Amino acid sequence: MTFGRRAFLANTTLFAGTFALGARAAGVPSSGTDDLTAFIYAMPKAEMHVHLEGTLEPEMKFRFARRNGVTLPYKTVEEMRDSYNFHDLQSFLKIFYEGKSVLLKEQDFYELTYAYLTKAASQNVLYTEMFFDPQMHTDRGISFSTVMAGLTRAQTDARKNLKIDSQLVLCFERELSAESAMKTLESALPYRQHIVGIGLDSDEKNNPPDKFREVFARARKEGFHLTMHCDLNQLDTHEHIRQVLEDIQADRIDHGGNILERPDLVAIAKRRGTAFTVCPVACGWLRENGENINIIRGMLDRGLKVTVASDDPAYMKGNYVAESLVVAQGDANLSKQDLLTLARNSFEASWISSAQRKTYLAKLEVFQRQWA
Ligand code: HPA
Ligand code: ZN
Q: Atom of ligand 1 at shortest distance to CA of 53?
């Protein structure tokens, strides 16, 4: 994650508009309009890069703190929001990890997940693969089963009440040891029917993908899909991307924008069909030779399988996936065809059965006939 000036400006500019658009998004906008924003909200889509712990909105944080007897270092929601000032991955993670103190009970994990799924369903997300970081919780003495019970109960209720389908992707914290990751993977095995994939997030500096080569090989053998973060502009980023593509052979890369600087890596990703989950609010731009290069535009132009996602919406001024697509559209002047490609990619890169994929793609086709 890089919080470049450009992304901040886009985000700040969008801020007021986001709330105005939110009201429209609550209902299904009428078809037959040229309004690209309405098009984006109504378009059937999947989201594959959202950290559940990153959906903990300040209001919810206060509510959980109150009922769990946790003291927060802020007096008001506004004060908390104002403190969300980060300039790079490390300063973001410091704030992000502070939030976990209020997540203690099964009900907290349930409400967190159900709230995200409610928001996603309101933006016509048909399917989502949600990241969660069990080490953030088990390290504080919360059992794996407590976390899983809350998450899966919310998924079941959302499937029934909101008609949104979801699966979980377990992420390891990469600054922790490979042994800790292996132990976490082993404690996840009894829950394998609820976990579709394994990912890697958190502090990338001096924590390369290859540190987890063995544990990801084991995860693959156990039948999980694989993804890994390669945040923007990190130390050794090209080597990290190479390791994900060639050594780990993951199915997807989260972010991965610096691949645009290396045609040889682009060629490998295209050959392997690697998908990219790009979060335009966190890092939509790459600065190269004094020029701003839009990552989504760059990936689309090179024929990479790029999808758009929100990452940590509660920490990014409430920009969920539809708002992230609005930012992407504005930044890169995306056409309806581009937006449809992003939505098609999101279903094609999802870890679902071919029957489920066919159903989603058929819905997208109906939408395209009505709207494009
Ligand atoms: N990158 C790394 N770690 C994270 C992120 C991210 O985008 N979001 C939450 N933890
Ligand atoms: Zn992320």
A: 9
